[in-house]
Amino acid sequence: MVLPPTAYPLSSGPFPVLDLILTTAVALFVTIDPVGLGPMFVGLTAGMDQRYRRRMAIKGTVIAALILFFFAFAGDLLLRALGIGFAAFRIAGGVLLMLVAIDMVFARESGVRTATADEREEARHRADISVFPLAIPLISGPGTMTTIVLFMGRAHGDLAKQAVVLGVLAGILALTLFVLIFATKVSRILGRTGITVLNRVLGILLSALACQFVIDGILASGLIPGKG
């Protein structure tokens, strides 16, 4: 059984739309991590000219956008086709986002939100890194795909809220493209320490949001009498 939108603590305050914008923006910003992508993109395109970097940034972001918008519109249908209840997906999504948060807080690279060392090494021998590893898994990784499906599910049946989620997604992708194009300058401004501190703070916020998704899933599952 799916809870109505008013059942979600994060979107039931006096300004539910603003709450939805903020929570969606934080979740997508953290899982896509435009700031953290900057230094990685610089490393993957080392020795290449600015024209090549710009082309890879635009192409990779567009491909990632197509993937994420596909999951936004078809995610629910895919779950139904597989016989997966949305309550179960909320719990699974919360667990996955918690793993992403742990990676961020402890500055680890498990491949959940970033490319692994082997994947980055393979990418260095590619003439085109836009699809792999830029679009997948760096921009549209498992955590980001899960996040967009969860938030579209949270806004189920409400076209205005779904439009808000999609608008926030477009905004974060636009910010990601901006950071990639000016990756060298952004990395220099923030510095390695600044990027690390920002990622850890955002990781703590994401861990709280992940817990909320797990709680939502348990409540929606009917496992607790009178709460389903």
Topology:
Blueprint: H1 16-32, H2 34-44, H3 50-81, H4 86-105, H5 117-123, H6 130-139, H7 142-154, H8 159-181, H9 183-221
Helix pairs in contact: 1-7, 1-8, 1-9, 2-8, 2-9, 3-6, 3-7, 3-8, 4-7, 4-9
**What's the count of strands?**
0
Overall radius of gyration: 18 Å
Number of discrete domains? 1
Q: Note the main sheet.
A: none
Low-confidence stretches: 1-11
SSE sequence, one letter per element: HHHHHHHHH
Shape, please? globular
Task: Tell me the fraction of residues in β-strands, as a range.
Answer: under 5%
Tell me what you see in this structure:
With 228 residues, this protein is mainly α. The protein has one domain (16-221): Growth Hormone, Chain: A (Up-down Bundle), CATH 1.20.1250. The protein is built from 9 helices and no strands. The chain has helices at residues 16-32, 34-44, 50-81, 86-105, 117-123, 130-139, 142-154, 159-181, 183-221. Helix 1 runs parallel beside helix 8 (159-181) and helix 3 crosses helix 6 (130-139). Residues 1-11 have low confidence and may be disordered.
Keyword list:
single chain; 228 residues; mainly alpha; disordered N terminus
What does this entry show, briefly?
Helix content is 75%, strand content 0%. Residues 1-11 have low confidence and may be disordered. It has helices spanning 16-32, 34-44, 50-81, 86-105, 117-123, 130-139, 142-154, 159-181, 183-221.
